[in-house]
Amino acid sequence: MTTTARPEATTMTTTPAAVTAPAATAGATPVVEARDLRMSYGSTHVLRGVDLEIRRGEIFALLGPNGAGKTTTVEILEGFRQRSAGEVRVLGTDPARADDAWRGRIGLVLQSWRDHRRWQVAELLTHFATYYPDPRDPAELLDLVGLTHQARQRVDRLSGGQRRRVDVALGIIGRPELLFLDEPTTGFDPEARRDFHDLIERLARTEGVTILLTTHDLAEAERLADRIAMLVDGRIRACGTPAELARRAAAQAEVRWTAPDGRPRHERTADPSGLVWELHRETAGPIADLEVRRPTLEDTYLHMVHRQGTDTDGTDDDAHRTGLAAGGDTGEAAA
Length: 335
Description:
The chain is an alpha/beta fold.
């Protein structure tokens, strides 16, 4: 299988053609489309029929355990790996046949890189800006990612979190229409992570940038993503909003309270509102120490991953696969 080396730098260094990022448009042609995407290495099947559809301006998270096929999927969408079968369109183009103009419309924030250590931060951003027809102002970008005071420092003298901010700055300096984020907040402190989340939401909501996020930070995915796909063993087991995924997993909420006799009580239920109402009726007043803990994305994720171990190996892929259309809850899909 032919592959193209994935760059260790955070953005493409080809000279792109001028691109104007259109505003978010509901019902328009999806930014990312994959149908029956498959990838095999000899007899090893990595992807088993992935269907994805991501619309413009959406923050879409791809989750899954190590070895599930996330990196392979993203590298195919980025144009760095040839697929075995299936149809793929990213920004209306097959990534396997994309040119430099297409690459100028995407931004990459990779998980690791080795280049640029001897550059000063401001010089590096100014240099990368020359590759784009309408780049962000490097000084404004430094302020945006919180590196103004490190503008004259060499990259190899930055902390891990500061280097990660440089990665992010390089990924968005060209005003991409589609931004790939791979574990973007690794090394960030809580304040920097919150600022980064605000930036990502601003890019999507205000500028219409489509964002594909891969992360092991489930709280981050739940905080940012409009929709989430869970990739397990080369198949997409679920796709939807965090609330839809929780409903599909049939995860139960936990209700805690203190009974009138002073004893702490707790109960798991699929209808916490109904249980609280019954408790109000029984006590004829306020419920002491009432606490309702609803299912988290982590509960849903663990349910999906553990359920994979009970699925039968002989199940036909087509019986699992449904189109993962933008918006709305969806069924299980082969991935």
